[in-house]
Amino acid sequence: MNMSVTEDKRSSTPWYKERWTWLLMLMPATAIVAGSITLWLAIKSFDGLVTDDYYKQGLAINQTLARANTAQEMGLLARVRFTAESLQVELSAKPGIDLPPRLSATLAHPTRGGLDQKLVLERRNGVYGAAIPEALSTAHWKVLLEDESRSWRLSGTAFLPTETEIRIDSTDLKPVD
Q1: Which of 87, 92, 77, 71 is nearest to 163 (CA)?
Q2: Are 52 and 138 in contact (CB under 8 A)?
Q3: Beta carbons within 10 angstroms of residue 170's beta carbon
Q4: Interatomic CA distance for residues 127 and 91, integer angstroms
Q5: Which H/E stretch holds residue 46?
Q6: pLDDT at position 161 over 70
Q7: What pLDDT does 2 receive?
Q8: Could you tell me the strand order of the sheet in which 153-160 lies?
Q9: Are 153 and 71 in contact (CB under 8 A)?
Q10: Is residue 118's pLDDT more than 90?
Q11: Of 69, 152, 141, 32, which Cα lies nearest the Cα of 104?
Q12: Nearest-CA neighbor of 90 among 133, 130, 129?
C-alpha cells in the first residue's frame, strides 16, 4: 500500500513543477535565442561585397596577366620605400627601355577597401615619388605599380610599418601562356 501512495503523489504533480521538463526545454530554447541573435547581427551589420563588379573583374584577369607578362619582358625592377609621409620608387628596366615620366601606384588594404589609396608618382632625378595623404595602418598592403597607359603592371606586398623597403622584381613572376 505504501507503493501506491508514492505513485499517486508523482502523478498528481503538475508538469511545470517537474525539473526534467525544464531541463529538456532548455536546449531548444537556447537554440532559438542564439538563432535570433545571429539573425539580428546578420541584418544589422551588412558588410557588402568587396567589389560590386566581380564578374567584370573575373573577365579582365587575362588582361592583368598580359600586363604582368609585359613587365617581365621589359625586365622591370622596382625598389619601393615607405616613409610616414611619402612613397618613393626606384624603377629600372632592360637597356633600351624608356621609363615613363609618371607612375600610378595603388596601395590596397587587404580587407578594407575604404583604406585603399591611389597615388600618381612624379619622376625627379630618376626616382618616382609622391606624398601619402593618409597614414597607412598596420597590415599586409598590396602595392600595384603601373604606367599611365596601363601597358604593364608590377605587384608586391609590404607589411607596414615594419617593412619600409620592398623589392618588386618582374622576373619573379611565373610566365603565363
Answers
A1: 87
A2: no
A3: 21
A4: 7
A5: none
A6: yes
A7: 56
A8: 153-160, 139-147, 102-108, 117-124, 127-131, 86-92, 77-82, 165-169
A9: yes
A10: yes
A11: 152
A12: 129
In sequence order, the 6+-apart residues with CB closer than 8 A to the CB of 66 are: 176
Distance CA 33, CA 18 (A): 23
Cell of 100: 615613363
Q: Mean of the per-residue pLDDT values for the chain? A: 84
| pLDDT of res. 160 | 86
Q: What is the mean pLDDT of residues 105-123?
A: 89
Nearest to 67 by CA among 144, 10, 162, 137: 144
* CA 159 to each of CA 47, 94, 140, 142: distance values in angstroms, whole numbers, following the listed order: 25, 28, 4, 9
Whether the model clears a pTM of 0.85, i.e. scores above it, the answer is no
- The H or E element that residue 9 is part of is helix 2-12
Q: Is the CA virtual torsion 13, 17, 20, 22 positive or negative?
A: positive
Contact 168, 143 (CB under 8 A): yes
Q: Where are the alpha helices (DSSP H) in 13-95?
A: 19-44, 54-59, 61-74
pLDDT digits (tens, 9 = 90+) for 7-47: 555 567 888 888 898 999 999 999 999 999 999 998 888 66
